[in-house]
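Q: Can I see a sequence and its folded structure?
A: Here is a first one.
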Amino acid sequence: MAEGAPYWMLWEETVGPGAHWSGLLRRGSTLRLTDVNGGGNAAVLLFNYEDRSERYNMPDTLKAQHTAFLGRTVALYSDMGRVLCSITDDTCGWHDTICGISNAALVEKKFGPARFQERRNEYYRNAYDSLLNELGKYGLGKRDLSANVNFFSKVTVNDAGDLEFHAGHSPPGAFVDLRFEMNCLVVMSSNQHPLDPATDYAPKEIQLTAWHSRPAPRNDPCRTRCPENERGFRNTEVWFR
């Protein structure tokens, strides 16, 4: 059991290095993502489980809360103005929202060729194909690869306007807690961030721990962060009347 997880934990499992995962997280549950060994990356897509045309909207999430990255008390909005989930705890402090995911061409360019035909289970995976594998289980495909969150990765913009990846940003054991305000399909890949400057293919495992937590109360810090969040949570609650 993950350290700090409550006794009413629902389940726990590990997404291996370069692996992919998907599942249903219901309203009133929390999912903890833990970067077990440090330096990991969890590329995540979020959908309304009942209507998968509604999904995480990066522009609305950022502009509503006047931020360029995710952290504690930030709510993740859908494209319908509802809150899919909110970050109730976070020991990492910065999660990338703008850099997208790796693909096969990028991985081969950075790390060299390592196809399944020659390497079998030791082949080099990429986030694009990994997420597509999971999306296909739910009747989704390429057009559903919208903007994602890269949990545990930090990217900033320097004075010249260049994107800078901060290697070593996430220490071993860093975690982020996502409390789900809607029933959500969560799709994840543990492949390396596309801007990771590492010269070796070395994705890290991500531990998942889920437990009952109930929806946000009236005085919740995520709800009261800003007036926009008050409205977003209200829109979400109307959906469940």
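Q: Show me another, different protein.
A: A second, unrelated one:
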Amino acid sequence: MSDLFPIAVLVSGEGTNLQALLDGVHGRDAQVVGVASSSPGARALERAAGAGVPCAVFARSDYPDRSERDRDLAAWLTARGARLIVLAGYMELLSEQFLEEFPGAVINVHPSLLPAFPGLAAIEQALAYGVKVFGVTVHYVDGGMDTGPVIAQGAVELPDARDPAQVLAALRPLEHSMLARAVTLAAAGRLAPDPQNSRRIVVLPEG
């Protein structure tokens, strides 16, 4: 059993953010002890298996309701020893009961500068609004829709963007580096609420 900080990753699709964590964090600053997917066909599961990380599928269609799905999901993550849950392209809502099992220990990466354009299709929302600066937010998850305290944000100026795929390609490097950095800081115990504004997360000094 590794002495590194144990994290688990929830995925739904391609898994490029998971790959960034496997390449940049796993076995160094933290240990990915499990990957759970909402979809049995997710490419992310292949990435996890290729890295020797235990995987499981918790498809919403296999359960009568979300609360039962989340109960089994939380039990599996707890059995794996996960202390931080990372949503890396996880396209499902998590119940309050799930969040209560991991208080202050669930983080998400979202492709917008929150609070702008929360929820699904954030890039499409931004394009429809006509913005010229796009961004990424890494934040803690609470009971709202992308409303948790902000850990980090990054932006890229794309004044002529028209295509969601073009924007996503520009944001991917930001997502990968920012999520890996946030996980590294969380594993080191260096993230804390800003004493002047609990909606913000500050980075504590080393040591």
